[in-house]
Amino acid sequence: MTNHLGNIVLVNSQAEVTFGYNRNELIGCRIEMLIPERFRANHPSLRGAFFGHATSRPMGVGSDLFGLTKDGREFPVEIGLNPIETETGTIVISSIVDISERKRLEARLRVADEAVHQARKMESLGHLTGGIAHDFNNALTIIIGNLDIVRRSGEIKTQRIQLALQSATHGSANAAKLTKQLLGFSRQQKLDPERLSLNVLIKGMTGMLVLTLGTGISLELVLAEDVGTISTDASLLENALLNIAINARDAMPDGGRLKIVTSNSYLDASDAITEDALQRPFCCLVVTDTGSGMTKETREKAFEPFFTTKGIGKGTGLGLSQVYGFVNQSGGCVQLESEIGLGTTFRLHFPRLDSEVIPASF
Ligand SMILES: Nc1ncnc2c1ncn2[C@@H]1O[C@H](COP(=O)(O)OP(=O)(O)OP(=O)(O)O)[C@@H](O)[C@H]1O
Ligand SMILES: [Mg+2]
């Protein structure tokens, strides 16, 4: 309870607990001691306005209110103001509720909502892309087959027709490559799974990675000795890692560091599609660069096919969509963390086969 001067006249035991003072330290002091410094200057005039027309109402509707504990910790609050008339003038009873937990829950729900929205968007994009790619593939099979028949027939009389045939063959081969990439995104490509160790695969790629990254970028490997085995298509996994490394190189034009880490892992609730996936062990491949990082918009679209920020002729925007499709088709998931100026981290989780271990030194 406070008077019109803003002095605390009475507190209950919950107020002592919430703010960390005992009542003797509070009574007689200014109420401003319980709010963060930056709100203090305005408070007396707001109090004056309230006492001018004192009615029961919530305080500061629409704005975020904060309390300050004795040890300097801020916490979000909701405050109800209830004036009462006494012989010594108007007194205000302020009921202050610590809403930290509610705010935490709201934030967690927001993150979960975004994850669901993102997953649905990728799912429908996958269906759409897969449908088109599938039909396109059938049409291309007919075109390529017939071009082959014409080529083998020996009935090509002029050089002009021969060049036209070469050009058509080249064009349809490009279209077939594109279709394959789109089928990859929509989790419909043919996988040739084998039992493998992330550590062994990465070690085998080190030379190629060093060449790809160039001289200005250092490569650091932190391969956990106890990483389990996974079952996936080795060449598609190599391709995924290469795509990520090329993106990292592009994001570090002035040099930097690419770190590859392996570990055993579990999924957290926002990534596990099923309850079952929460319990199952995974192996994780983490790739971190010290590059430019991504804006929120880029982050949200990075895995979509044809999304690129690299300008015409520089990127097709299919690299990460293939990584996404491939890892999901392998029963895993990809996580992306990236902030402008702070670099980028990709985490690729693959279902762990068993506790069998192929040591990093293999
Ligand atoms: N490591 C990274 N750092 C910063 N931005 C990145 C990184 N990786 C991807 N991106 C962003 O995500 C976009 C999509 O990446 P993706 O690999 O799918 O396509 P691309 O690299 O533009 O083209 P492509 O891989 O087909 O040649 C990139 O254009 C870039 O904006
Ligand atoms: Mg790329």
What is the level 1 CATH name of the largest domain?
Alpha Beta
Bound molecules: adenosine-5'-triphosphate, magnesium ion
Mean pLDDT, to the nearest integer, reads 92
Shape: elongated
Radius of gyration: 31 Å
| Quantity of strands, as a count | 12
Strand content: 15-25%
CATH architecture of the largest domain: 2-Layer Sandwich
Low-confidence stretches: none
Q: Any idea what the CATH superfamily of the largest domain is called?
A: Histidine kinase-like ATPase, C-terminal domain
Domain count, please report it: 3
Query: Structural class of the secondary elements?
Result: alpha+beta
Number of helices: 11
CATH topology of the largest domain: Heat Shock Protein 90
Give a description of the structure:
With 362 residues, this protein is an alpha+beta fold. It has three domains: 2-98, Beta-Lactamase (2-Layer Sandwich); 106-185, Helix Hairpins; 194-357, 2-Layer Sandwich (Heat Shock Protein 90). The chain has eleven helices and twelve strands. A hairpin with a 3-residue loop joins strand 11 (333-339) and strand 12 (343-357). Helix 5 (100-153) packs antiparallel against helix 6 (159-185). The chain starts with a strand and ends in a 5-residue tail after the last strand. Bound molecules: adenosine-5'-triphosphate and magnesium ion. Magnesium ion is lined by residues 243, 246-247, 315, 319. Adenosine-5'-triphosphate binds at residues 243, 247-248, 251, 289, 291-294, 298, 302, 307-310, 315-321, 344.
